[in-house]
Amino acid sequence: MLLLYSQEKLKKKSYTKIMKYLILTLTFLLSLHAHFDEEDLYNFEKKCSICHDTYVQNDMAPPIVAINQRYKKFYGKDLDLSVSKIRDFLIQPSYEKAIMHPAIKLYDLMPKQKLSQKEIEAFSEIIMLLDFEVPEWFDKHYESHNLNDEKK
To answer: What pTM was computed for the model?
Structure first.
C-alpha cells in the first residue's frame, strides 16, 4: 500500500514538473516572437474587444476571430507580413489597406483609433499570435453575409 502511494505521489510530482517545464518552454518560445505583455492584453480587451467582440454577436465590427482567420488565409504562413499589414491598417485605416471588404460593407470602415505606437505594435501581434475561440454563431454569420466573396 505504501509503495502504491509513493508511486502515485511520484507520478503527481513528475506530472507537475513536466507541466511547469512545458509552460516555461511555451512562454519562452512565445516571448521570442511576441512583443506584448499582460498590460497590452488588458488594453487590447479594453480598446479593441469592445467593438470586435468574439463572444457576442454585434452590429459594430467583425469579431477578432474573423480578422485573425482572414489575415491567416490571405497571407498564409507569413506571420511577419500579416502583422505588418495589420499595423499599417491600424495606423491609418483605409479601404485600400483593408482585406475585409465585405465586412466594410457590413460594418463600415473602422475609424482611426487613438493608439500609441506600442499599442499598435502589440495589438497587431495579439491579433495574429493568439488563438481565438470560434463562437457558435460565427459560421452562420459568415455564410449569411456572403463573406466567402472576399478578395484574395
So the answer is: 0.72
Structural domains counted in the chain: 2
* Percentage helix, strand, coil for the chain under 3-state DSSP, each rounded to 5: 65, 0, 35
Opening angle at CA 82, ends 33 and 42, nearest 5 = 60
**Would you say the C-alpha torsion 110, 111, 113, 117 has a positive or negative sign?**
positive
Which is more confident, 44 or 151? 44
pLDDT in tens, 45-72: 999 988 998 778 888 999 999 999 999 9
Mean pLDDT on 34-55: 86
Same structural domain for residues 16 and 64? no
**Domain interval for residue 28:** 1-33
Q: What whole-number distance in Å separates Cα of residue 132 and Cα of residue 63?
A: 10
Shared domain for 132 and 70, answered yes or no, is: yes
Considering only CA atoms, which of 134, 127, 138 is closest in space to residue 36?
Answer: 127
Determine the pLDDT at residue 152: 42
Residue type, 150: E
Looking at the fold, whether 20 and 89 belong to one and the same domain comes out as no
**Do the Cβ atoms of 150 and 102 come closer than 8 Å?**
yes
